[in-house]
Amino acid sequence: MDEYLNAIQQGDCIKRMDSMPEGSVDLAFADPPFNIGYDYDVYQDSVESQRYLDWSRQWIAAVHRVLKPDGTFWLAIGDEYAAELKVASGELGFTCRSWVIWYYTFGVNCKNKFTRSHAHLFYFVKDPANFTFRNDDLENRVPSARELVYNDRRANPKGRLPDDTWIIRPADASGEITPDDDASWRLAIAPPADHARTFTLRPQDLDQCFQPDEDTWYFPRVAGTFKERAGFHGCQMPEQLLGRIIRCCSHEGETVLDPFSGSATTLAVAKKLRRNYIGFELSPDYVSYGRERLAGIRVGDRLDGSPEPTKSAPATKAGRKLGSPPPKRKVAADGSRSGKSVLTQFDHAEELALTRQQVLTERGLLEAFQAEHQGYSVDRLVADPELNAGFVSRCQQLGLVGDARSWNALLFRLRKAGKLAHIETVRRTSFEWADCDAYFFASEIALRLMLDGRQANSLDEILCDPALAMEFDEIAHRFAPGFSPLEYRWAALKLRKEANNARTRGAQLKFPKSRFERDREPLVSWDIEKAPDEHGVYLLAVPGAGRAGKTLYAGETLNLRERLSNHRSADGLKELSTHCSVSVEEIHVQSVSIQSANATMLAWQSCLLTRSKGTKLNYAELWAR
């Protein structure tokens, strides 16, 4: 059993499960091939129907054997074989407790039939009288309409369990980075009111879901009008969806099995939620990618996407959309205003014009992105000067209203609303720590200086505005010359993405204070041979008591000698002294080697930042204030 635990094994899942001890798994989640002709690299997803069903019975039986008597089995499947596999699972000894529908949209549009917009999630148990279902845990509950909408004192303060139709945003494509949300931008497309976007209180809270041309229909009871937004699709399972299943149906320390590991999302969520995990995968490439993904995760890391909101969820709000005209009240003959709202002919025409402009702009942006993204993500297209130049040129050719900054910003908004989900990202952008170590600190300093200088309020503002992005590149170049704009910018995105995990990991570390404080000396006269060619952290500061002392920068690097040599160079010292308003001779250095792995990069830096109570040049989100 130990050889399988907390690992992905390459090979046939039936043979692998048959070699496992009976009754050794608490929870199994399977998202098998659907037999619909999907292009896998080593598996033929189009076989004769009876052959597929026979194979399905074999692996489901293997799952049943390895589950404990109180074990749980979740099965994700498409329409084609949902009924057959539900029946087969029952015949093999499982009892179905729930048939959950995960609603999504932006699938392949169908002209001659209803567009598919859901996936089936069967919730089975081995023993209907003995199973794990953590229904009282607050993290597994959502607010009720009675509490959020009607402010009814009779509402259960613990909330309620979710319905069995789940509307959850899809996980971001592998390797991609979600931009931050700056509510101060006043754009034509309003950001969603619910930042989490991981649940919808009621189906009637949606204004784009459950459309007449989709195969999930909803007929609501007559009630108030509540509006939200849609934008989901079923290409991959979101971490939040797997989080709900794993939290509800297993306890910490128990074992979760995924016989079709794929990109290892089930295993990643299990590891983050402090469960043991076992994965099987036929493709060697997927195994390699899954192992790499798991190596970068630590127990307790946040799930991708926002957590399920409970008490902090915003109430449903009625109101007009950003950019729409206010309703007009009817004026009676005596000049009084009635309570009814009507639109004049002029108002109606204006509303149609605004709607048409927004629709055309959205369509143009979608067309430009699809034509120019070359298989990369939105983040890459905006951050890469060459790709972005092609996108901006295409928008100009299409005659869209706006400029480069607004088009880039609107593209981010469309992505956050789920309206780019149907455009596949097939090429990853990945800069490993070893690739960016030589200039990572320069990107961090450039970002801090621009945010402090009020040139921008967020990294997104910098990247969306070509002039600000060039200014960012110039600052980073002065601290670490010789790298491309894409490298500087992607390092900043990597920094923002990793900051939260670094802060939580860093809070668990104990800093070697005694080793660190005995090596303080002026950087200008520092002996380069004193620093080892290895992973470590360092502090640049101006010594002194009280206000006389200044902490300038706390860094972490894979090679202390190379990094401190950069700071010690004439240009490096000049930039530090200029931006920190100190003389070259005042800057002192302290450093210490750290035995650590790439997965904990920035955690020691965050630990040092917290101990130093912040610095002038570090990214503020790295330290716990």
Overview of the structural elements:
- Among the domains are: 1-175 and 187-314, Rossmann fold (3-Layer(aba) Sandwich); 346-416.
- The chain contains 20 helices and 14 strands.
- It is globular.
- The protein is an alpha/beta fold.
Radius of gyration of CA atoms, rounded to a whole number: 28 Å
Q: Please state the overall shape, judged from the principal axes of the Cα atoms.
A: globular
Do you know the CATH architecture of the domain at 1-175 and 187-314?
3-Layer(aba) Sandwich
The oligomerization state is single chain
End-to-end separation: 44 Å
Q: Could you estimate the helical fraction of the residues in percent?
A: 25-40%
How would you write the strand order of the largest sheet?
1-8-7-2-3-5-4-6
Annotation, overall tally of beta strands? 14
According to CATH, what is the topology of the domain at 1-175 and 187-314?
Answer: Rossmann fold
Major sheet: size, sense and barrel closure?
8 strands, mixed
Which tags fit this structure?
Rossmann fold; 4-stranded antiparallel β-sheet; alpha/beta; 36% helix; 8-stranded mixed β-sheet; globular; 625 residues; 14 strands
Condensed summary:
The protein is built from 20 helices and 14 strands. By secondary structure, the chain is α/β, with parallel strands linked by helices. About 15% of the residues have low confidence.
Give the topology, please.
Blueprint: E1 7-10, H1 13-18, E2 25-30, H2 49-66, E3 67-77, H3 79-91, E4 95-103, E5 118-125, H4 145-148, E6 165-167, H5 239-249, E7 255-258, H6 265-272, E8 276-281, H7 284-295, E9 328-331, E10 337-342, H8 345-372, H9 378-383, H10 385-397, H11 404-416, H12 433-436, H13 440-452, H14 459-464, H15 466-479, H16 485-506, H17 513-517, E11 521-522, E12 536-542, E13 550-557, H18 560-568, H19 570-580, E14 588-593, H20 603-612
Parallel strand pairs: 1-8, 2-3, 2-7, 4-6, 7-8
Antiparallel strand pairs: 3-5, 4-5, 9-10, 11-14, 12-13, 12-14
Helix pairs in contact: 2-3, 5-6, 8-10, 8-11, 13-15, 13-16, 16-20
